[in-house]
Amino acid sequence: MSDKLDMSAMYAMHDALRRELRHIAKITSRTDDDPRNLLRAAVGWELFKTSLHIHHTAEDDALWPAMRRTLTERPDDLALLEAMEDEHAAIDPLLEAIDAALTDPAGLDRLGDLTDSLVTRLSGHLKHEETEALPLIQTVVTPEQWAHFGQVHGQRIGPNAPRLLPWLLDGADDQTIATMLSPLPEPARQAFKNQWQPAYAALDLWNATSTD
Questions:
Q1: pLDDT tens-digit profile of 186-197?
Q2: Pick the CATH number of 8-158 from 3.40.50.1100, 3.40.190.10, 1.20.120.520, 1.20.910.10
Q3: For residue 160, what is the DSSP state?
Q4: How is residue 158 annotated by DSSP?
Q5: Burial (Cβ within 10 Å: 0-12, 13-18, ≥19) of residue 183
């Protein structure tokens, strides 16, 4: 029996976040330049934070509450939703602490530990969500609730779509790209192909020209 919900967008987002975590770990381990300067100026760091915020707040506002109403008599599943929210809440202070370290003259000493914690916590959360929360979503979330979550997520991307959509699909396979673009009107699909993706590809996301 096939899954009732298409989770292509969810997995695409998780893959993109993992991809960026690898870049963040690499850039903050540099010893031939001050990694604070490199990360602070990196377009990739801003895109990562923006996308992560949109993704987590959309789940917190439009997905977990709908599930909670269905799971009122299932305490173990309610505990899982609470864990998802707690894991989200633990990540935001790390982002704020990293940003503070980037502008602090003494921040270099703690930057490595902070980014290590970010990689560990976010990677652990993504794995936890995929192994436990996504199967539960397939079981209890209706197609209408899932579509509503997708709409909220898309609305929060809003005018940032020309940058965030190519970011999301960077490195994705052809099937995922086709699936993600299929709901868009034809003018938007053409804009993605002819304008958004080429403009994104031209960005120096992680200051490669100064670190390679």
A1: 999 999 999 999
A2: 1.20.120.520
A3: G
A4: G
A5: exposed
